[in-house]
Amino acid sequence: MTQSRKLLKRKFTLNGQPQEVDVDGHETLQHLLQERLQLSECRRGCDRGDCGVCTVMLDGQPVYACLVMAAEVDQSIVETAQGLSAANAKYQRLQRAFQEHALTLCHLCRPGLLVSASALLGERPAPSQEQIRAAISGHLCRCSGPDQVVRAVLAAADGGKVETS
User: Are the beta carbons of 45 and 60 closer than 8 angstroms?
Assistant: First the structure.
């Protein structure tokens, strides 16, 4: 005999748009965003919070969507890389800096790194190299080294006028 799981109705804001979805209590936010809501930039990586690929903003804080249960986002604000790029001048400057510094990030790594770097710049407009390294430390990117990411974030921070230690 199979038991059906109870679905939970959840309302939240996703990239500025109201959402109302029925979620299974065992469904992750990453699965909801990528598989059900078809947001390609919230990719599946490790499913353990080790790689940073699925990083999104939840109520203004970067989180690994693979570690957040979809049922937890009721009445929350969720922003993905796609949503941040639409309305955030600092995020757009950050994207340009990533391109200008020849970061060879694949499409798997880039969105999560951009979300984490954007969150840092939102909190600290002129971060130090150490603060940038701490903000991106949860990302296991094999495409580009962390030094390139640090240089790009420094260039994007307040027009490149930042402290270096």
Answer: no
Domain that holds residue 17: 7-80
Number of domains in the chain: 2
Strands across the sheet containing 7-14: 17-24, 7-14, 77-79, 55-58, 61-64
| CB distance 89 to 79 below 8 Å | no
109 and 154 fall within a common domain: yes
- Which of 80, 97, 119 terminates a domain? The answer is 80
Can you state the percent helix, strand and coil of the chain, rounding each to 5? 45, 20, 40
Give 77-94 pLDDT, tens digit per residue: 999 988 887 767 777 888
pLDDT in tens, 101-127: 766 666 778 889 999 999 999 999 999
